## 1
Amino acid sequence: MSSSESLRTGQRWRRIIPVALAMYTIAYIDRTNISLALPSLSAELHMGPEQAGNAAGIFFWGYLLLQIPGGYLAERWSAKRVVSILLVFWGACATATGLVTTAREFWVMRLLLGVAEGGVFPATIILLAHWFPPAERARANAYWMLCQPLAIVVSSPLSGWILGHWNWRVLLVAEGALPFLWLPVWSRAIDDQPATARWLPPQEREYLLQALSPNPQARARDPIGPIALPLIDPPTVMLVAVYFFLNCGGYGYLFWLPSALQAVKKLPSFWLGILFAIPYLLAGAGMVVNSRHSDATRERYLHVALPLLLSGILLFASVLSSRSSPLLSFVLVCLTGAGFYSSLGPLWAIPSESLRTRSPGVAAGFVNAIGALGGYFGPLLVGMLRELRGDFRVAFAALSASFLLAGMLALLMKLTCRPALEATPRRRDGE
């Protein structure tokens, strides 16, 4: 391995990524563990499918509140401190969710959990942008975002086991306490910048300071200012739309897939958790492969569009085959999860590379704030259509349409936006 290649695979990959991955895995567990608990939780709190979908998705209305402030504070103050504060806030909210006694209280705690987690995502995007140059960023984002499928793979069997032995309250309280356990690790292991990290070898620090130096041309493109620009910049607005429809399909899929599997065949909670984890094992592999290819080819938009289009096609095919061949339908559902998750690494490389702003933290926060609302409308739409039609087939067909629309919008971005990374000549080793 050349010295240049050694610097590009240095200690930051073994320190920053694992700690950030574990932190957001916990966040994702606390956000999504109600998917397995929803049948028993709904029965105890007397919620119908539409009401349950609304309560599951209300998280995302709270989630948007701290997106732009979180990104701004992370960039201008400290990503490490922003996440540390929010670890405490979301741990308290997640634990309290297991103590509710009415549907209204559950709705309120889901909303507050969304507020608590809202600033974590843009702060982590900024942290990674401070540690990984553009040519490495899709991989860094994808390795960190493995937390999303990893959270399901790790927590689903465990959550199913807890549900089988105790109940949904024990599940939410036990998993809600995890942020408090991880806070000391995060505080000790993470530094905001390479310049302040004592554990970083001098040669690697020098490489990062040079590779991460700002591009004067990119800054000159921003005549309006870091806060106002994302609200009116067409590429940013298009990226918001892509992420909105991705989340509409993705969270509708995530929150309702266990209920859909349970409706096909009654299963013990543990085995339901095992089946629910399978799509997310495939998703993790897809994320790594697609992000590595995106960095190797220095292309983002096709690496977002094609997985989303494939997910839409596969999910619709799963709906069509659900009655004639349940096994084939489940295989197609598994491949759907691998598809849309694979788009996330390249997608989150775009704000810091291609959008016209001096403040990628604000841009990332804006995209995540508005786009994440798809996570509210997706579960709600599934709940409404299931209540109206009596099964999940029409609802999951609507989710497939959402993936297809997201993919087509990403293709349109490919035609109208030119990533800064593609415009930059490739460096040879040693340069």
## 2
Amino acid sequence: MSTAEISKKNVFVAGGTGFMGRRMIEELLRRGHRVRALVRPGSEKKVPAGCEAATGDALSADSMAPMAAHADVFVQLVGTAHPNPAKGEQFRSVDFVAGCAGADAAVRAGVKQFVYVSVAHPAPIMKSYVAVRAAVEEHIRKSGLHATILRPWYVLGPGRRWPLLIKPLYALMSLIPTTRESAQRLGLVTNEQMNAALVQAVEQPANGIRILNVPDIRKAKL
């Protein structure tokens, strides 16, 4: 589909200054969409040129709902940077609260489409992170929103390429019947693939709840 054929959207983004958010916003603007991004006070210049910055609290539905008014799509990308097993309390106080607040804000603002970046599960590690993201998914389901939930495991990008060292292990696991499904579900995705999947989620509305697992994210193209 060419950019001329795309229905232009009003998009509200929470978490638009991170490495995934900035790239997604740039692509959405290039394709003619209008984007407003939630930022902390003083961070207005961190959003890409052409994006409207709105200062507010990513942990408060009351703060975000007025800003999301008139949006067609709410994209929730807020989360703890560089998650690891030692950050369980941050997952509960930031990721869970922000995810639920985003869904609640979308409902209050009358936004019909919600896009949420969750995490692949089940998984043998990062159990507190997985539990929090799964709890947000359940909150989204109960909200009644039409939502696309993306479930990457690890997104490769600048400063995030060490997992390439274990890529041969993934290849081996994919050949073994008992580990093949886990290797696919917990596989690596590139920043380019993730960006394409996010943009497609914005441009192609979900009907109910749509789940994009790692194999689906890898297939996304712009």
## 3
Amino acid sequence: MIKRKIFGPVLLGLGTILLSSQVFAQSDVIEQRIKLMKANGAASKALKAAVAEKDYATIELKAKDIAGNMDKVDNLFPKGSMSDKSRALPAIWDKWDEFKKDEAAVKKAATELADAAAKKDATLVDAKFKSVGGACGSCHKAFRAEKK
């Protein structure tokens, strides 16, 4: 009898702890995702200025930052990780293969931009910079909600 009186509350407590830890983990991954996307946004702004100034060192560095961030994206989008802070649409998980293709396109475009900057080829840099913007925009159009 005493075991039953203790077992119920203990089980309820453990369930609450497990559920709370999942909620906190999801919140943490969303915060990390937002931080990464803001870093990419800042890198994009820096890229725009660097392209205008033909600052190839900065272009190469910022393009590599964006490409490197794409390696982290998968872990920052666990299935269903949505909140009022996140602009991620459910389409991400419904169309995961398309999302992955967009992620790969951003990485490829950013890598090609970094390579063009290393060669100091202004015409190629301009073209690849536009490719990065197009790849990012394609993903955002399909998988990101409008700003609230």
